Amino acid sequence: MATALVASLLLSGGAGVNLLLVAVPATLAGAFAARAAGRRLRPWTLVWAVGGAALLLVPVLSDAGWPTFLAIVTALGLTGYALHGGRGWPSMLFGPVGLFDSLGTGMAWTWRGVRERAGGSQGRWGPVLRTVLVAAGLLVVFGGLFAAADAAFADLLGSLLPDISLDQAPWRFLCFLLGLFGAMAVARTAAAPLRWDRLSFGQGRARGRLEWALPLVVLNLLFAAFNAIQLAVLFGGYDKVLSQTGLTYAEYARQGFWQLLMATLLTLVVIGLALRWAPRGDVRDTRLVRAVLGTLCVLTLVVVASALRRMDLYVDAYGLTRLRISVATMEIWLGVAILLIMASGIWGARLLPRALAVSAAGFVLAFGLIQPDALIAQQNVDRYERLGKIDVRYLSGLSTDAVPALDRLRGAQRDCALRDIAERLDDEGDVSWYATSLSESRARDILAARPVSRFASCGDPTRDEEYDPDADPYSTYDPYAP
Fold it and tell me: Which among 332, 324, 334 is positioned nearest to 258, based on CA atoms?
């Protein structure tokens, strides 16, 4: 009930510290239910719980919606890990989904428990209810009198308390139900979790050495040839390659990243299938598996480095965007995943599922904390100061995280970049302290100190028309051409 009440009062108008405030009573519900069921707090449970709480700091600090969405979804996944426990692949794959299984059963389970607890304690509920009603009545009466007597106290009270109005009643009722059923699901899962690790998946039938090893050896040779060319380009320079291929600098940078990203993803699939069908008879088989797959992992790391180098050239030519920073971050995580797979081949794979889950959650947390919109704005402003090209129409669609960097622009460029952001903040009006982020508060202060002109002309001739080749991937524009 506490979770439901807090959710109905605070989950409106945006995301901020209100998510943490709602998570506190829900976490306590799970902790009490687990203790009543005889479950002990394990170190990994604490790791998942602390990680989930850390992810909920992202909406407190950042205003961008996409990192916030990723952080909230990942926090729900870590909650599933904390409640279910487990260490194997089934727990890591199905643990987050198992929390939703308790949404229906949690209500019946809670109702049975309430009836059993209330069976012999009817006489205790009357005094408790009267005490709560008397306290609430005193707060309402004297709080209203003090607010009417002093305007400063009224403003303080209004900023601390949520605005309860009839037009928000349907939304608040929905948040009430969300908090109620969510807390019951958490408590139900903590008391009787699904043991996903009891699921067993049979290993694939081991193939002959030649049948599985030869295709991988051929693939390793292909990777080695590609990486040799990449190293030759790296040390020999791009001019020779561009002259031989007829590509522009920007085309070469754009051409390969997406293919290399797909190659990295497919390599992980190949490694998984190879481990399933590789022979496991004796020590020689184990050594052969490690040698072939280890070589493939090392060569794949070179592909990852080449893809990131292509993205660096891409960003240098056209600027940083949300899509580019997102896929570059994903490519970096894939490289980390390959390193973890290599480590598991040396020291054992017992911790590999948890290690991959921790690394993924860590990347989501870091991605939110670096505030990608702010990084995008900073890189593009730096690029404008260096090359004189900028797309203010794209930058104006960023969140308030970008305001400090965009504030470095001057004249019409600044007005055009910040105008839409300022209008969005004006349309939102005053937002409650619990439903706003630090970035939004900082942006409001900046725009209040240096207001944006509403009459500036935004038809800037220095706009880079090929700034966003994601919409036109076959553009031939080369900013480095004479």
Answer: 324
Q: Tell me how far apart the alpha carbons of residues 410 and 344 are, in angstroms, rounded to a whole number.
A: 53
Helix ranges restricted to H, 62-208: 65-84, 89-118, 122-149, 151-160, 169-191
The residue type of 202 is G
Query: In this predicted model, what pLDDT tens digit does every residue of 23-57 receive, in sequence order?
Result: 999 999 999 999 999 998 899 999 999 999 999 99
Q: Tell me the whole-structure pTM to 2 decimals.
A: 0.80
Neighbours of 324 (CB within 10 A): 20
**Residue 46 exposure: Cα atoms within 13 Å on the Cβ side:** 4
- CA 314 – CA 308 distance, rounded (Å): 10
Instruction: Report residue 113 as tokens.
Output: 């428990």
Between CA 397 and CA 406 the distance in angstroms is 12
Q: How buried is residue 168: exposed, middle or buried, by Cβ count under 10 Å (0-12/13-18/19+)?
A: middle
Q: What is the pLDDT of residues 256-307, one digit of tens each?
A: 666 777 777 888 888 877 777 777 667 777 788 888 888 888 888 888 888 8
| Cα separation, 367 vs 307, whole angstroms | 19
| CA–CA dist 184, 155 (Å, integer) | 36
Quote the DSSP letter at residue 40: P
Task: Enumerate the H helices of 348-454 as residue ranges.
Answer: 352-369, 372-387, 392-395, 403-406, 411-428, 438-449
- pLDDT higher than 90, residue 71: yes
Q: 396 vs 115, which has greater pLDDT?
A: 396
Torsion over CA: 308, 309, 311, 312 (sign):
positive
Report how far residue 2's alpha carbon sits from residue 478's, in angstroms, rounded to the nearest whole number: 59
Sign of the Cα pseudo-torsion (155, 158, 161, 162, in order): negative
Nearest to 369 by CA among 12, 84, 87, 60: 60
Joined tokens for residue 221: 């040779």
Which among 310, 305, 370, 367 is positioned nearest to 339, based on CA atoms?
305
Q: What is the DSSP string of 217-254?
A: HHHHHHHHHHHHHHHHHHHH-HHHHHHHH---HHHHHH
Q: What is the pLDDT of residues 208-264, one digit of tens each?
A: 667 777 888 888 888 888 888 777 766 555 566 666 666 665 566 566 666 777 777
Residue whose C-alpha is closest to residue 147's, from 137, 162, 138, 158: 158
Distances (CA, A) of 29 to 18, 41, 47, 83, 100: 18, 14, 18, 12, 16
